[in-house]
Amino acid sequence: MVDLTMEIQRLKQDRNAVILAHNYQLDEVQRVADYVGDSLYLSKVAANSKQDVIVFCGVRFMAETAKILSPTKTVLLPEKDAGCPLAEMITAEGLRALKSKHPGVPVVCYINSSAEVKAQSDICCTSANAVKIVASLPDHKVIFVPDENLGDYVAKQVPDKELILWKGHCVTHAKVKAEDVKQVRELYKAAKILIHPECNPAVVRLADFVGSTSEIIRYAEESEKTTFVIGTEMGVVCTLRETLPNKEFFLLHPGLVCPNMKKTRLESVYQALRNHQYEIDVEEEHIVLAQRTLQRMLEVV
Ligand code: SF4
Fold it and tell me: Which of 119, 154, 159, 235 is least crowded, fewest Cβ atoms below 10 Å from its Cβ?
């Protein structure tokens, strides 16, 4: 029987590859990765990587982002059907129609968007830097796509701006309801409740702390508290339980599991390296424009 972990290490050397894994990936995948983190961190790693091949264990828009930032490299997505329903809720055509209704208004696109949508936008953002990115723009009106919940959260943090929002949402984070937060508050009275801004505004309002994946992890690391309820994908709970064994972590809602993020298994990483699959291809014209959108973000943060 093949020892997949050893084979992955061997093939990685052979192919001169680097393995990146999002925090929402399965433990078995995170363990073989060279870098584990959120979208912002991984996009910076991809931009600076020296290897010829990037194996991106995540969903399609993340691998596309790596390709946009490193167009001469081979970027592999181990599971070809690992998509992001939120990113698929907006098309370039839909964005063009929205822009035509608001001529001259800059577009901020969440990193959870296709290469084509990024190419149509002015600047990109992640949940870790969305407030900073919107605040950095000189304009009063800003189009923010495609996550309506994140956009609502940003609008509240930057009240002097008027945000025009697209009606997209993350189907996983949207499962949490305000009632769930009230219930866990009763159940774990001493716990801090940490929530991702992709959750709906009624949920976010009840949080002790709102932040991106990496900000939630940092908060739990630095806090003197020992019990936390985590309102984001369960992969973050797994990471926290492993890295902070003296603290307790509970998942806010059992539905906080992204099925697309869980498609990638150790076997998929092995097959990706072995068979050079599935190579990400982004059209040249989209690469040039989307690169500008991403670089603008990386200059601000
Ligand atoms: S958790 Fe939500 S936003 Fe993240 S990849 Fe899954 S569906 Fe997309």
Answer: 159
